[in-house]
Write a structure and sequence with these properties.
The chain has about 950 residues and is an alpha+beta fold. It is built from 12 helices and 65 strands. It has a 5-stranded antiparallel β-sheet with strand order 1-30-57-56-55. It has a 4-stranded antiparallel β-sheet with strand order 2-29-28-27. Strand 24 and strand 25 form a beta hairpin. Helix 5 packs antiparallel against helix 6 and helix 9 packs across helix 11. It is elongated, with a radius of gyration of 67 Å. The termini are far apart. About 35% of the residues are buried.
């Protein structure tokens, strides 16, 4: 680190010593550009407008609007749009209002463009509302804003408009010329009277303003705090201090002679830009020095410039008579190419005094850097491939495909016919010797301030020797791009090669190919396929140089390096171009953003860098050279990225949904589901090489993250699901600066069958269906429950029936058993009755028998006392035979057994006698006539008679059996 600081001190001293030598070129740094500025041309075919443009402005989103013959041109950095005005007339002026409107002035009309609901600009005329006497005017050439009012200035009247109010008119007596605005004041030239100022809707002649009564003014601009600078079209340039008009002093009248100025503007760096009718673009500083003159010869489409505008990135836009051009004024890079007489690809450069020599594949060219209009001419006898230029001991040496040359007296002279030459290398400690690297080895040359000659070809090395450097030990190193490195040692007299040592990947290098060699800080370093190496002589091997290698990517291959007097190192690698600078502590910093766009423009055959001085560096380009002005700082001004269009691509034909101003708010459309396929078109307001601007996009709620960088300016999404999305896009310009992301939020509604109303409908239907389902389920449940209940009841019924049947069977069985019991009881009782009856019968029979016997005894003459006793016995017997007690007991038992037979019979046949009732009971008991006769104590015949009488009483038919009747009753 200390060594680096000491070296920086040495370089600073050397810088002071070389100040005198560098003075000529240091003086040239006052020029705006060393070469021609970078110009981007737009032909009418590209922007699809008219050939002429008359005014330009940017809106807050940095979108460019241009007043064109065909209408209002809009350029967003990627896409051109054209909006015609009413009647298709030419638009002469344009102004971006704070209210978001774009005001325009055209032929016999003025008005504004305002975005419709889709963001598409629509034109609204203000002139149509004018009274008839003010309606007839010519073209509106200027539009300004002052105090919230918009002024439209014509050659006849001045029209003042405040949004929402009627247009006011200032109608001077004299015709007007062009009008101008300086520090919010509006000036106009009243023809025949002079320069006037607009105050309170009146034109007031300025003191000394009559000086311009007959001089057409192109522009009025601020010069300093107290003075204005006034550019006339063809009468020169003047300063005005409010009281006097004085000519503006020009450094060179000749350079500004015979020019017609159409418009002038003050640039942001304080210079003045003039668009001319016949000499293209002129730039002038405040001291009257011409800084730049760019015309068709230098790359413009046309020498007639109608209007000028400097955008927010400090690019200068030119409205030409035929097309548009953009000049990159803020760029520290300029071109030395065919527009300056230079032909071919850049390979070598050398500055000698004010003469700049440039070697290309077409030959050696020379031009003076002291002239603003640089032109290069071919040096005679130099045609062909030039590889290297050296200035040694008052000799300009050129290594050429045809051999070594010396340039003398404006002509290239061949030193020796030896074949192609690569480079010249001074020999340390031998000031009169040079080593020449050629196609077939190295040669020795002699040199002095007055003489130069070929000595001999050195034997011992026959390889093509393009890259040569002496180390601090006096040994010559040669790098061969496809083999490796050669270390060459000479004898003390330099007459021959003493030894050649070969190095490649076996000696610590990463490969045999693409090994380069550079002398940095007075030491040789070796950029390899990847990494930077140094030679360790003690180990006879190459070791990685961490200081340099850490500055680059691991796989980065350094192709070319060049050091300036301050120790800054410019480099070209296979990935980028950049510069390494050191702070006061010796800490290195690699800068590459500013150089990012250079890589593809540079010579990729033999990359080349040449430092002219501390502020001027040349890079060999595919077409000539690119100049870098290190003293000119490129301001990395933030820029905008914006969505310019949202297009529906869902149908057969694309349809525009939103565009332009309709997208600036960040709130996008609410889309039906049928429009869920979209194309987003976007752009950035960075106009330097817009085709190289890259974009990243990200659709929130759809993409997983930011996309890869791409130069495409549109992105399509198809079949987006319903939901809210935010589309974001950001840009990265050629310098690597990334803009803020622009977002656009939009909503894709669900299809009708997935909308909120549909879901509400579904919910209602669902509830209804759910209710119906519940109802149906409840119904089925109830039905099933009922069925189960019925089934249960049925089963219970069946069980009940079964039980009942069983019960019935049981009851029947019980009844049967009861009946059987009853029958048994009945039979028993019947038997008892029968037995009782039989007993009665037997008793009666017995008694009758006894009675008969007693009667017989009486008849046979028993004694009286015995007779009385026997009569008494007979009476008791009769009493027992006819006893009612026995009958009552019999009746009780009989009714109990035979269902109250006697009572029923008496109720139905009340006329029956007791004797007939007894007969009926005995018949029911199915007793025989004989038994009945015994019971009734009558004869059998008496029983028959009683039966007959009973039949009568019962009204029985003769065919009906009396006994059966009684049994059934």
């Amino acid at each position: 680190m200390e060594m680096i600081v000491r070296l920086k001190g040495v370089f600073f001293v050397l810088l002071l010593l070389l100040a005198g030598l560098l003075a000529p070129i240091q003086g040239t740094t006052q020029h705006y550009f060393f070469g021609n500025p970078v110009i981007r041309n737009f032909k009418p075919e590209e922007f699809k407008g008219g050939i002429q443009s008359w005014g330009m402005v940017q809106d807050p989103e940095e979108v460019l609007y241009i007043a064109n013959n065909f209408g209002l041109l809009e350029f967003d950095g990627a896409t051109w749009n054209l909006y015609p005005v009413k009647g298709g007339t030419k638009v002469r002026s344009v102004f971006a209002g704070k209210d978001g409107r774009i005001y325009v002035g055209s032929q016999a009309d003025f008005g504004y463009f305002k975005p419709d609901v889709r963001g598409v600009l629509q034109y609204f005329s203000l002139a149509d509302s004018l009274p008839a006497k003010y309606r007839n005017f010519d073209e509106v050439w200027r539009i300004y804003e002052q105090g919230g009012r918009i002024y439209f200035l014509t050659f006849k009247n001045i029209y003042s408009y405040e949004p929402g109010k009627a247009v006011k008119v200032v109608a001077p007596a004299n015709p007007l010329e062009f009008s101008f605005q300086v520090n919010k004041d509006i000036y106009t030239l009243v023809w025949g009277k002079g320069l006037s100022i607009l105050e309170h809707h009146q034109l007031k002649l300025l003191p000394a303003g009559e000086f311009f009564a007959d001089k057409q003014i192109a522009s009025v601009l601020p010069f300093d705090r107290n003075r204005l600078i006034i550019f006339t079209i063809q009468h020169g340039i003047y300063l005005y201090d409010g009281q006097r008009v004085t000519p503006f002093p020009l450094a060179s009248e000749n350079e500004f002679s015979n020019i017609l100025i159409n418009q002038a503007i003050l640039l942001k760096d304080g210079a003045f830009a003039m668009g001319t009718q016949n000499k293209g673009l002129l730039l002038m500083d405040s001291q009257g020095n011409l800084l730049l003159n760019t015309s068709v010869q230098n790359g413009l489409l046309d020498n007639t410039i109608h209007t000028l505008y400097q955008d927010n990135q400090e690019n200068l836009w030119l409205g030409l008579n035929n097309g548009l051009s953009m000049v990159e004024l803020s760029s520290p890079f300029s071109r030395l190419d065919g527009t300056m007489g230079l032909s071919g690809t850049g390979y070598a450069a050398l500055l000698k005094g004010n003469d700049l020599y440039l070697g290309t594949n077409s030959g050696l060219f020379v031009g003076s850097i002291s002239s603003q209009r640089k032109q290069f001419a071919l040096v005679p006898n130099s045609r062909g491939q030039v590889y290297h230029l050296n200035y040694l001991q008052n000799h300009l040496l050129m290594a050429h495909h045809n051999g070594p040359f010396v340039v003398k007296d404006g002509k290239a002279n061949l030193i020796h016919s030896m074949g192609g030459a690569w480079d010249f290398v001074p020999v340390p400690k031998h000031p009169n010797r040079l080593i020449l690297g050629g196609y077939s080895g190295i040669s020795l040359l002699s040199i002095s301030e007055t003489d130069l000659g070929f000595v001999k070809k050195l034997e011992g090395l026959d390889e093509s020797s393009r890259v040569l450097e002496f180390d601090k030990d006096g040994e010559l190193w040669m790098a061969h791009g496809y083999k490796g490195l050669f270390r060459i040692t000479f004898d003390q007299t330099l007459d021959k090669i003493a030894s050649v040592r070969f190095y490649n990947s076996r000696h610590g290098l990463p490969s045999d190919q693409l090994i380069n060699m550079e002398k940095i800080r007075n030491e040789i370093i070796f950029p390899a396929l990847y990494g930077v190496y140094r030679f360790d002589k003690a180990k006879d091997r190459f070791v990685l140089d961490k200081t340099f290698s850490d500055l680059f990517e691991p796989t980065e291959h350094i192709i070319e390096m060049e050091e300036d007097v301050q120790g800054n190192i410019y480099f070209i690698s296979n990935q980028r171009v950049g510069r390494i600078t050191y702070d006061k502590f010796g800490k290195p910093t690699l800068e590459d953003k500013l150089f990012k766009h250079l890589r593809e423009q540079l010579n990729d055959d033999l990359s080349y860098i040449h430092v002219l001085d501390i502020n001027n560096v040349l890079f060999g380009a595919k077409e000539g050279f690119i100049h870098y002005n290190a003293a000119k700082t490129k301001k990395m001004v933030p820029f905008h990225t914006h969505v310019t269009k949202v297009v529906n691509i869902s149908g057969e034909a694309d349809s525009l949904l939103l565009s332009g101003s309709g997208l600036h708010g960040g709130q996008g459309p609410e889309l039906p589901y049928a429009l869920n396929s979209l194309r987003f078109v976007y752009a950035s307001s960075f106009y330097e090489k817009p085709e190289k601007t890259q974009y990243q996009y990200f659709l929130e709620n759809f993409d997983t993250g930011w996309s890869e960088w791409t130069t495409r300016t549109e992105k399509e999404y198809t079949n987006l699901p319903e939901g809210q999305y935010t589309f974001q896009v950001r840009a990265r310009n050629i310098y690597g600066t990334v803009s803020q992301a622009k977002s656009l939020t939009f909503l894709v509604n669900p299809p009708f069958y997935r909308s909120r109303w549909a879901y509400l409908f579904y919910a209602v239907c669902g509830l209804l269906l759910l209710g119906a389902g519940f109802y149906e389920i409840n119904k089925r449940f109830t039905k099933e429950k009922r069925r189960l209940i019925l089934d249960k009841e049925r089963k219970l019924g069946q069980k009940e029936l079964e039980i009942r049947e069983i019960t019935n069977q049981s009851e029947q069985e019980i009844d049967r058993l009861r009946n059987e019991k009853f029958q048994a009881e009945l039979d028993h009782k019947n038997r008892e009755l029968t037995y009782s009856t039989i007993h009665l019968i037997n008793k009666n029979e017995l008694l009758n028998s006894v009675k008969l016997e007693l009667q017989d005894m009486l008849k046979n003459g028993s004694p009286t006392a015995q007779q009385d006793e026997m009569k008494k016995i007979i009476r008791n017997i009769d009493h027992n035979i006819t006893s009612e007690v026995d009958w009552k007991q019999f009746e009780f038992h009989f009714n109990h057994v035979h269902g109250d037979f006697i009572h029923r019979l008496q109720e139905k046949f009340p006329s029956l006698t007791p004797q007939e009732i007894k007969l009926s009971t005995y018949l029911r008991l199915n007793l025989t006539t004989k038994d009945i006769a015994q019971l009734l104590n009558i004869s059998v015949r008496g029983v028959e008679i009683s039966r007959y009488r009973l039949r009568k009483r019962l009204n029985l038919d003769r065919s009906e059996n009396l006994s059966d009747f009684m049994l059934k009753f």
